[in-house]
Amino acid sequence: MSILVVTGTSTDVGKTVVTAALAAAAREAGLSVAVCKPAQTGVAPGEPGDLADVTRLSGVTAVVELARYPEPLAPDTAARRSGLPMLRCADVVETVRALDDRHDLVLVEGAGGLLVRLGAEGFTLVDLARALDAPAVVVAAAGLGTLNHTELTIRALSAAGLACAGTVIGSWPDEPGLAERCNLDDLPAVTGVDVVGSVPAGSGRLDSASFGAAASTWFDGTWLKATLTAR
């Protein structure tokens, strides 16, 4: 079976839509897929969160959210302020491994950037990926600032001994400017990691059929096939 962690260089870079696109592409390839969002913040009980968007776009219904906090903060801070229990890394690992037993691919979407504290004892997505022995896909912004943010993220993964499966641009503009065009060449040069996909801006507003039909075209075909079949 296969587990893939989806992290971002920061918040609001398109992690959820990229997660949905990977899930949709995997379904199109005939794989059974599950998605885990360990911590959802900024959403009240009963309201749709990121996993609702994943299901709406990709059609994947095997989705698991372990903790939810109402304030839009880092999960550990949001937990303290709400008085709700903090996540434990061991519980997330147990949940993801159980999903892995029953599915061909499990996608684990982080919260914010790579080193955001997710719960008890300050564990991060680095700790989770290490415990799961899972590579990470890094979702990056397209424009100014992304070279620094992406290189820092990939350096942190490398320092932790974790594999980076590739970089994906989470929202590629309809009319890219000079910075966006240059970044496509500069990102691999400064990070040592290929840009393996880009999701067009606004893709999260597509209907499920249109999203599913297009999702696999947003990634490098050779990379996608190798990643989805790496078990």
UniProtKB/TrEMBL annotation:
Recorded metabolic or biological pathway in which this protein acts: Cofactor biosynthesis; biotin biosynthesis; biotin from 7,8-diaminononanoate: step 1/2
Keywords: ATP-binding, Biotin biosynthesis, Cytoplasm, Ligase, Magnesium, Metal-binding, Nucleotide-binding
A Pfam short name: AAA_26
GO function terms (MF aspect): ATP binding; dethiobiotin synthase activity; magnesium ion binding
HAMAP family recorded: BioD (MF_00336)
Cofactor(s) needed for function: Mg(2+)
Gene Ontology, cellular component aspect: cytosol
Gene designation per UniProt: bioD
GO biological process, one term: biotin biosynthetic process
Designated name of the protein: ATP-dependent dethiobiotin synthetase BioD
Cellular compartments annotated: Cytoplasm
Active site: residue positions: K37
